[in-house]
Design brief:
β6 and β7 form a beta hairpin. With 257 residues, this protein is an alpha/beta fold. It has nine helices and seven strands, in the order ααβαβαβαβαααβββα. It folds into two domains: 202 residues, Rossmann fold; 38 residues, no CATH class. The chain has a seven-stranded mixed sheet, sandwiched between helices. It is globular. It binds iron/sulfur cluster (SF4). Iron/sulfur cluster binds next to α8.
């Protein structure tokens, strides 16, 4: 069975991805891999760790991530010996991260809290409902800038077929900070098969099947993630019901350095 699975994903692509990472590691001494603990991140981290077992791993977490994501982070960190560093705008470290000794760099939450209360006062709604771009800017883009400030390059799990905003990315991008996208040409199916072949447990949200057949295929913060049908693009389940639907948080569209 395992043999069958191993031949089901594209091992040629795997080798190509590793070659991209290998070259990047040779070219940029100060390089790290980003991990959101979604499926694409997990595949990317595995590939990067096979090429460079000591490559630093960082993760941008938010106060709106589901509890299951924190639990999965802890589990994968231990199983894969990731030694992850989490960056997060929050007053306190989430208990499960604290209890398990995860390294968390907390960033000041004052500006975020001020925006949240002002928006709630004016609109009676949460920041992610009325101003998702601002919410992502404060909770994701700003911590990402902090996370990469001592690196020259970072490795990400972007893929061209994930959604409308990801079709034009390149394997290597030069925008101040070099971005390396080793699984850019992988299909969703190839990612699932690769993780299965490697015996990596999935985030539990991926195993949920809703009564109408929809599944979570792209994982983000809890209020901004909904399941989608098989015929939809993966990222159509992100920021559903807002003008940002299927879009980007800004980490990959804004200059981080
Ligand atoms: S994904 Fe949603 S909750 Fe998370 S930072 Fe962006 S807008 Fe806020």
């Amino acid at each position: 069975m395992l043999h069958k699975i191993e031949t089901a994903y594209n091992s040629g692509k795997e080798e190509h991805s590793k070659e991209i990472i290998r070259e990047a590691v040779e070219n940029y001494g100060r390089i790290a891999v980003a991990c959101s603990f979604g499926k694409d991140s997990m595949a990317t981290v595995l590939l990067a760790r096979e090429v460079h077992p000591e490559i630093p791993v960082f993760s941008i977490m938010t106060v709106f991530k589901p509890e299951e994501t924190f639990e999965y982070l802890v589990k994968m960190n231990e199983l894969l010996n990731l030694n992850v560093t989490v960056y997060m705008v929050a007053r306190d470290v989430p208990p499960v991260l604290k209890e398990n000794g995860i390294e968390v760099r907390l960033l000041p939450a004052g500006r975020f809290e001020k925006d949240c209360s002002e928006l709630e006062m004016v609109y009676g709604k949460r920041i992610y409902e009325v101003a998702p771009d601002r919410c992502c800017e404060l909770l994701k883009v700003e911590p990402a800038k902090e996370a990469v400030k001592n690196f020259d390059a970072w490795v990400c799990g972007l893929r061209n077929t994930e959604g409308r905003t990801r079709k034009d990315y390149k394997e290597i991008e030069f925008r101040g900070l070099v971005k390396v996208n080793p699984i850019l040409n992988w299909t969703e199916e190839e990612v699932w098969k690769y993780l299965e072949a490697k015996g990596v447990e999935l985030h539990p949200w991926y195993n949920l099947v809703f009564p109408d057949g929809r599944r979570v295929r792209s994982l983000g913060c809890e209020p901004c993630t909904v399941p989608v049908y098989g015929w939809q693009e993966e990222r159509e389940g992100r920021w559903n019901g807002t003008s940002k639907c299927g879009g980007e948080c800004g980490i990959h569209t804004r200059r981080l350095k």
